[in-house]
Amino acid sequence: MKKTLIFWVEEYFYSPTSLQKLLSYLLLPLSWLYCFIMYVRYKLQTPEDFAITIISVGNLTVGGSGKTPLVTALAQNYAKPAIILRGYGRSSKGLIVVKEGNEILCDVKSSGDEAMIYAKKLPNATVIVSEERKIAIQKAKELGCEIIFLDDAYSKHNIKKQDILIDIETKNNFCLPCGPYRERVWKGKNALHVKEDQDFFREVSVRDPRQKMSLVTAIARPQRLDKYLPDVIAKHYFEDHHSFTKEELEEILRRDKSESLLVTFKDYVKIEHFGLPLSLLDLEVKVKEDVLIPIPIKETIFKQ
To answer: pTM for this one?
Structure first.
């Protein structure tokens, strides 16, 4: 039931049917009220300067945008970066240092899937999950980090930062609840807009490929993967951040008679300990040089 509802909402936001469009128009008064409240919230906040370069990477809409591989691609250019995120879907609460130096300090249940991706992909990074971004920024400074990347923090208007926004194509351009937009680019906000296949590009590889693979994925709008897929014998979509069990994955292998499960890194970090045959669809990002130019780097040290 939960999965059906989530997929219906994703369709409503990004590729609405005629009936869904009608519903969207009926909810317009609520959308206008929501946008007004978010604008007032923005105007009432004063950005705090933390005396360190802070880059927020995200998007204005709900759902996936490719921010995790983009943050990874940007952060790997620096010697001592910190990645700070809420850690959506984790079983823990409060501030947790997921990784410091070369040591991963907790498991994926405590960190959340996206934080563990950063921990495994970025050997030089400190990774922190926290509901309170300001506390996490202070912790990153205490740990000697030289630049901070905030995962999906455009709405944190009380933090002085450079915003990078990934533009997402959608047929529904309204704010919640009519459409997928959480906020607009408010007057006075500076943001660098980037677009996939224009400012950054995917570099796709498959580790441990097999002849018979079943795609299993729990990312937002999983159809985004279609253009990157090798041949698969079946596709199994789960809701974003789904917690897999070993039994349900074994059932997929048995039912499909596949040799391995093809998964993204987001899924891989949650299920690698099951000991099942896995093939990894690695979707790394290559960023155009001019995307880096607007990022202030005078207080940071580039990795040589």
So the answer is: 0.92
